[in-house]
Specification:
alpha/beta; 4-stranded mixed beta sheet; 3-stranded parallel beta sheet
């Protein structure tokens, strides 16, 4: 996302889920915020939960949070990216209850990304919402018969 408008607030939140059923898990999750403006605020949020339904023996996921200020005066730029790779190694059908919970958390992330609170507080709030998303999916996996539950998970976490 690129903010070039002086005095503006530009925010984008993109929590997503992905299913990978191949041997190589190479999903990408990027939060990119770029500002070239005066007195502006730019926020990019990307949270991804990857569910590995296949054998998943080669893990190469990419997760990056990039915040760039270029020729800025009094601008604030923040990027938040979290990627979680869950490995039940079987077909998964999330419950309607879990989908509703994820939709609620996605909306809360969007609202949070547009807030004017300090970035340290925003980071803490987004981290909490991310953990709640993962917990909802993990609980559903356990209810539906995933014996590994939390032990089988790989977590890729990069802060910027």
């Amino acid at each position: 996302m690129d903010n070039r408008t002086d005095g503006s607030l530009l925010a984008r939140s993109n929590p997503a889920g992905a299913v990978d059923d191949g041997a190589t898990v190479a999903n990408q999750n990027i939060a990119y915020a770029h500002a070239t403006c005066t007195g502006c605020r730019t926020v990019a949020v990307a949270v991804q939960i990857v569910i590995v339904e296949g054998s998943g023996t080669d893990f190469r996921p990419t997760n990056a949070a990039v915040a760039v200020n270029e020729n800025c005066n009094s601008c604030q730029t923040f990027a938040f990216a979290r990627q979680f790779v869950l490995t039940p190694h079987r077909r998964v059908q999330l419950s309607d209850q879990t989908w509703r919970k994820l939709a609620q958390l996605r909306q809360q992330m969007a609202t949070e990304s547009q807030s004017l609170e300090p970035f340290a507080q925003m980071d803490a709030n987004l981290e909490s919402l991310s953990q709640q998303m993962v917990a909802a999916v993990q609980a559903d996996l356990q209810r539906s018969g995933d014996p590994g539950g939390e032990q089988g998970d790989h977590k890729v976490d990069e802060r910027d």
